[in-house]
Amino acid sequence: MQSKNILLKSGGLLMIKIVVTLGVVGYLWHHLHQEEQVFKQTLEWLQNIGEDTASWGLLFFIILLVPINWALEAKRWQLIQGDSFFDSFQTVLSALGTGLIAPQYVAELWTRMQFRGDLSRTELTKRWAFNSILLAMIVVFVGGSFLFFKRTTLPISYYFIILFLLIALSFWMIKKLKLVVSSFKQWAILGLTLLRYIVFSSQFVLMLYLSDVPVNVSELIACVSMIYLFKTILPVLGIIAEIGLREATALYFFQDYGVAEWPIVMASFSIWFVNILVPGLLGLVIWCRTKSLKVC
User: What is the sign, positive or negative, of the torsion defined by CA atoms of 247, 252, 253, 256?
Assistant: First the structure.
């Protein structure tokens, strides 16, 4: 009976993923299939960036934030796991890499288990869950706030409320999951998580600004926060659908501003390329090398 219920739940989740994925593909097709001279528009987008010296500096800064982003994630994992920073960095990049060729969360958990074979699956799953849920909570709280209030700016007091809720929930999760983490590490993990959210959100905002999206910064921040919210809460099938989800939600939230669609799509894809694909491919190399060394 229990196995039957698990199968029913798995089948239901799969159907939801299929429906959401088809919806994402359909939405993108509806908006972009009538776009003419796509190749020409892409070249123009790249040319506009290439001709402006200031744009090169901004692009360099966005790329510079890539290793900072993943270093912050590695430091979070180091504090949770107790590994060295170098080992944690390898683990994080390898998990990112395997997520390119397999379902993301399954691949991420499985890869982290490979790097810490001395821990039980239950213990490592609890640590991974805490690591993932904490970041997801920040994405949901911030993005949900902008979505709920339908405002591009929130009162300062509301950020303190969000911070208080995050602190309370993070401490509750540590107690509930029975993780052995000191008070100092708890605060450090929360601070690093907040900082990492600021870093990768800033990358997206800067890339949209670089693409000459005619929207003020506060509105860009609000839209990016809501894009990451929907990317976090909507289940999709595979890496291609995940890319499409980011583009589809970006088009949806910017449609009221009368912005050209192609720069938004290119900015969104560029963030995925520099922040996920490139470090992910490096992670695959690390994972294959580590795996071959273990075999030897």
Answer: positive
pLDDT tens digits, 11-63: 454 455 455 555 545 544 455 555 555 556 666 666 666 666 677 888 899 99
Q: Please check whether residue 116 is in contact with residue 159, taking contact to mean a CB–CB distance below 8 angstroms.
A: no
**Reduced DSSP (H G I as helix, E B as strand, rest coil) percent helix, strand, coil of the chain, to 5:** 85, 0, 15
Tokens representing residue 103 in the block: 């379902």
For residue 208, give the nearest of 261, 136, 139, 286 by alpha carbon: 261
Exposed, middle or buried by CB within 10 Å (0-12, 13-18, 19+), for 294?
A: exposed
Please indicate, yes or no, whether the overall pTM of this predicted structure exceeds 0.70. Answer: yes
A 10 A CB-CB count for 271 gives 22
CA distances from 72 to 92, 151, 211 (A): 10, 29, 27
- Structural domain spans, the chain: 2-33+41-295
Residues 6 or more apart whose Cβ sits within 8 Å of residue 19: none
Residue (of 226, 259, 53, 258) closest to 148 by Cα position: 226
Residues 134-182: tens digit of each pLDDT: 888 888 888 888 887 766 666 667 767 777 777 777 777 777 766 767 7
* Spatial contact of 169 and 114, defined as CB atoms under 8 Å apart: no
